[in-house]
Amino acid sequence: xxxxxxxxxxxxxxxxxxxxxxxxxxxxxxxxxxxxxxxxxxxxxxxxxxxxxxxxxxxxxxxxxxxxxxxxxxxxxxxxxxxxxxxxxxxxxxxxxxxxxxxxxxxxxxxxxxxxxxxxxxxxxxxxxxxxxxxxxxxxxxxxxxxxxxxxxxxxxxxxxxxxxxxxxxxxxxxxxxxxxxxxxxxxxxx
DNA sequence: AGCGGGATTAGC
DNA sequence: CTAATCCCGCTT
Length: 191
Prior knowledge:
The protein has four helices and eight strands, in the order ααβββββαββαβ. It has helices at residues 8-11, 15-22, 117-124, 166-169, and strands spanning 26-31, 34-46, 74-79, 83-90, 97-108, 140-142, 153-156, 173-176. It is globular and about 40 Å long.
């Protein structure tokens, strides 16, 4: 559990690459000295202001300012008036990109469901106060420990961004194959 | 100052 | 399918 946090350089890269590379790694939140940890099994990449599904596509605002800041920080926002979503800022400062963490497989001290961005934040105890938190610090971070075995990674369009035209169809969602904690609609065998 | 809508979830 | 529920960002 004492593995170091991923360094800032990890996040300062191509956003889709970071989204893939985060899969299988362990997200840790230390609450009152007690670590809560889960394995990241589902992510989505939001590429920047040109990406019409990204919050940054409407330019820098008070809400999304952290996205335009330096990489390796947490972008946390409230959605639908009742849930929080946790992102990691990526690319060089000023770019306006982030990776949404959508689902965890519980590792330690994560009771309740963790499959879905809102549930993930609830289980970890993440809310608005963590917006802007430096992920290279000791309280909220992703372990630098490399996933032990090779991962089977699948892709799909991102969830809930149908308004984004062609960008909605891009495969910028990444998840571990056959992992029961992955959220969203499973592909249905119809035809 | 008012209003529309959202990177979701749960319940009918 | 739709309500819940609050903050933000844009319009008036």
